[in-house]
Design brief:
binds adenosine-5'-diphosphate; single chain; 5-stranded parallel β-sheet; about 150 residues; Rossmann fold
């Protein structure tokens, strides 16, 4: 069984994240969206809220599961039997950051492959940090989040 972990902060989950998952569904038997919860990191939204939005977005997708995790991503992969880490790439900045993480993860756990999908052009500029800024300054962020959760924004 091909199981992929899609790790991230998802603070909040955006249309860019949704697009990566929807396009990865045909590639894997199961995709586990792992919402990171590091005690040293500051989040705008609680872990419960981030999980709820993602669960709502994929309520009709049988092969998508949503959980939270702490600690090393490769350790969590082993725990859930995932041989693949799924990540999205928007631009060269993402590439530089993501390739380092992927090389380090490969060094830690040679059996786990990182699979990258390029973002669809219409979502290239969507970025959780900017979405958070819009929300903090009371702007309208609806257009940047999945349709299923737009009423909450
Ligand atoms: P992290 O805190 O681990 O960077 P994010 O929630 O920001 O987590 O992102 C999780 C994954 O989704 C990363 O691989 C990131 O590159 C990808 N991603 C974020 N926004 C987009 C987007 N608009 N299009 C495609 N991939 C994206």
């Amino acid at each position: 069984m091909k199981i992929a972990l899609f790790p991230g902060s998802f603070d909040p989950f955006t249309k860019g994240h949704e697009d990566i998952i929807l396009r990865a569904i045909p590639l894997f038997d199961k995709i586990v969206i792992g919402v990171g919860n590091n005690s040293s990191k500051k989040y705008l939204f609680t872990i419960e809220q981030r999980l709820e939005w993602i669960k709502k977005t994929f309520s009709n997708q049988a092969s998508v599961e949503v959980t939270n995790y702490e600690g090393l991503t490769v350790d969590y992969c082993k725990k859930i039997n995932a041989n693949y880490i799924l990540r999205g790439l928007r631009n060269p900045v993402d590439y530089n950051y993501e390739s380092n993480i992927a090389y380090m993860n490969k060094a830690l756990e040679n059996n786990i492959e990182t699979v990258f999908l390029l973002t669809s052009p219409e979502f290239m500029a969507i970025n959780s940090t900017i979405v958070r800024d819009i929300i903090i300054h009371k702007g309208n962020a609806k257009q940047f989040v999945p349709l299923a959760i737009q009423n909450d924004f």
